[in-house]
Specification:
Elements (H helix, E strand, L loop, with lengths): L13 H15 L3 E5 L15 H6 L7 E5 L3 E5 L4 H7 L6 E4 L5 H8 L5 E4 L6 H13 L3 E4 L4 H5 L12 E2 L2 H4 L3 H14 L4 E4 L2 H8 L1 E2 L12 E5 L5 E3 L7 H8 L3 E3 L4 H10 L3 E4 L6 H9 L3 E4 L5 H5 L3 H26 L8 H18 L6 E2 L4 E4 L22 E7 L1 E3 L2 E2 L2 E7 L4 H18 L18 H4 L10 E3 L8 E6 L12 E4 L2 E4 L3 E4 L2 E5 L15 E3 L17 H18 L5 H10 L10
Parallel strand pairs: 1-5, 3-4, 5-6, 8-13, 11-12, 13-14
Antiparallel strand pairs: 1-2, 2-3, 7-9, 8-10, 10-11, 15-18, 16-17, 17-20, 18-19, 21-22, 23-26, 24-25, 26-27
Length: 614
């Protein structure tokens, strides 16, 4: 299995570890210390060595921060984790704050007194974050203090070693562009930004730029490291050479000078000492890099990572690979859903479904000569009330049976060498209630609204997020997460900068991959989420229109459960889209199936009877 079912969170660890941290706080002359869920690269997944927030608090989610004071402790999480955090931390030790409504800078203005010294690790906070924190501290007369050694590391005596997964080359057939050509494009962009150099801190950007993949973090094929790219083409790559085979090292040496990670800080300081103008992405780069450059005579050019938009706008080979991956994945999901349909309520638990799904993906990968390389995240397998926990992670301690009269939410994804997938389907176990069917249909209406949307060039994700919520809003309902995230090409399943959300400020460009995943969650009862991946298509003129419009191509191929659809709630256009989508699902993945599974798919994808359409 690519995932385990050990309990992820542990509320028992918080009390003794916070007590030890407070001893270090006192020794350092600090009044508070911040512990984010981040590593030096600010990625969603971190190696075990960098899981400081989980080690200290017991909270296992992918976003959050703790602030430890002498007599109080707080943990900040967003809407996805409001239920989970209460199960995973000791509520006698930690007070819970909302990371979005009351982020640490706002909290500091209301809770920190004059003269207080707040410690932080400048490797774990971005330039933008530190500016906001410092502004708030200044307003209340407090001091933000960078520490030379992380205080959690000082008490974490059995901290794991850095990961050393082998680096592998990503074939041109899937990358679609040679690394030397990508690096030449990036060098030109650096010069255009008025910089002499740029630091790549995001391992996804390094993987894309050098056409390499790795295995240093869970479920995302990343090799952790840094790169200093130069406008004149004299690039340096900082990565532990123990990860390189002879072939990989020979390949990388043609593109850049390979250097050890320990060389990175002194090299950057030396470069700054020459007066170099060094581009740092203020949203991604650690404050420590800003300190190194500015403190050694260099000039910091704050500009976005030059690889982020080229990486996000997929080329023809990446798009073809994604389509192939989704056909393969759709066939695997169909096998799973067919099998699930044949089981009696109460006979399966959540773990059994996760295990079977991975078997289906492995089998389909073998049949198509494209092996499953990993899951793209820990499968969310939520029965009944567990489905209402948005980022629920099933464990042996929490696994529920799929019982009669409940809903079952399955959110999963796969990593294939030609593409990354992410799909969510919600199915009934036995007979659903009318409320379940109504709310499922409202969520489906939101997904269809995004799927059929046409929008002009320059549109941002924030401008279309509400469209997915309108049907729910009309009934006084909503969901506490974004509607869509960017997706990489055999890279991170959550890839920026594009997203469909209130905070989605990036323009949606041709070739960008995103998810389309509205939902509804009734705490203590059930959750509903439906998710397809979508591709931004070229802007094309519409008959009678004045402006060329982008649209979305749906890549995910799996039926929606007709037992949960209240057909009379859908418009004729929505039903037409649904029938067309199901016909395409059958046409594209049907040839990969046979026997009972094919018969099941034909029934699941059949057009809705005309009399149901009103």
């Amino acid at each position: 299995m690519f995932q385990t079912f050990d309990s992820a969170g542990d509320p028992s660890v918080g009390k003794p570890r916070v007590a030890k941290l407070r001893e270090v706080l006192a020794a350092e002359g600090l009044d508070a210390f911040m512990v984010p869920r981040a590593d030096e690269h600010q990625g969603e997944y971190v190696p075990a060595r960098a899981a400081r927030l989980k080690w200290l608090t017991g909270f296992s989610g992918s976003a959050g921060v703790a602030i430890i004071l002498k007599d109080r402790a707080f943990i900040f999480v967003d809407g996805r984790y409001q239920l989970q955090v209460r199960q995973e931390v000791d509520l006698d030790v930690f007070s819970i704050e909302n990371l979005i409504d009351n982020p640490p800078p706002a909290w500091i203005r209301e809770n920190v007194g004059e003269g207080m010294r707040i410690g932080f690790d400048p490797w774990l906070h971005t330039i933008v974050e530190v500016k906001a924190l410092k502004s708030s501290a200044d307003k209340v007369g407090a001091e933000l203090v960078p520490v030379h050694r992380n205080l959690v590391d000082a008490i974490w005596t059995d901290r794991p070693e850095p990961p050393l997964a082998p680096v592998e080359l990503h074939p041109i057939a899937y990358a679609g562009e040679l690394a030397r050509d990508k690096l030449a494009r990036l060098a030109a962009a650096i010069e255009k930004d008025g910089a002499t150099h740029a630091v790549l801190t995001d391992p996804s950007s390094i993987a894309w730029a050098f056409n390499i993949r790795g295995g240093d973090v869970p479920h995302t094929p990343l090799a952790l490291g840094f790169a200093i790219l130069a406008a004149d083409g004299s690039h340096r790559l900082y990565m532990d050479k123990r990860k390189f085979s002879r072939t990989v090292e020979a390949y990388l040496t043609q593109l850049a000078e390979p250097r050890e990670p320990a060389d990175f800080e002194p090299d950057l300081a030396a470069l700054a000492g020459t007066g170099a103008r060094i581009a740092l992405d203020p949203v991604l780069a650690a404050e420590r890099l800003n300190m190194l450059v500015a403190g050694n005579g260099g000039s910091v050019i704050e500009t976005p990572d030059p690889a982020r938009i080229p990486r996000a706008t997929k080329n023809a080979a990446e798009i073809a690979g994604s389509r192939a991956a989704h056909r393969r994945d759709g066939a695997a999901v169909a096998k799973l859903l067919c099998w699930l349909d044949r089981q009696q309520p109460g006979t399966l638990d959540e773990i059994a479904v996760v295990t079977r799904l991975e078997e289906c993906r492995r089998q389909t990968g073998e049949e198509t000569q494209m092996p499953l390389r990993d899951v793209s995240f820990d499968t969310i397998s939520g029965a009944g009330p567990n489905g209402a926990i948005m980022h629920y992670r099933v464990s042996h301690a929490t696994s529920r049976r799929l019982n009669e009269g409940e809903l079952f939410l399955l959110d999963s994804g796969a990593q294939y060498q030609d593409g990354t997938t992410d799909i969510t389907r919600t199915v009934p176990v036995g007979q659903p209630t009318e409320e379940m069917r109504e709310r499922y249909t409202l969520v489906l209406k939101g997904l269809i609204a995004i799927s059929t949307l046409r929008f002009p060039p320059g549109t941002r994700g924030s401008e279309i997020d509400a469209i997915a919520r309108m049907a729910l809003w009309r009934h006084g309902l909503d969901y506490a997460h974004g509607t869509g995230h960017g997706v990489g090409s055999y890279l991170a399943v959550h890839e920026g900068p594009q997203r469909i959300a209130r905070t989605g400020t990036e323009k949606l460009l041709e070739g960008m991959l995103l998810s389309n995943e509205p939902g509804y969650y009734k705490e203590g009862a059930y959750g509903i989420r439906l998710e397809n991946l979508i591709l931004v298509t070229p802007a094309e003129p519409l008959e009678g229109g004045d402006i060329a419009m982008h649209g979305f191509e749906t890549l995910t191929l799996a039926p929606f459960d007709r037992r949960l659809i209240k057909v009379h709630m859908l418009t004729r256009d929505e039903l037409h889209w649904l029938d067309q989508y199901h016909a395409r699902v059958l046409a594209e993945i049907g040839p990969m199936l046979d026997g009972d599974t094919l018969a099941w798919l034909e029934k699941a994808c059949a057009p809705f009877p005309q009399e149901e359409k009103g």
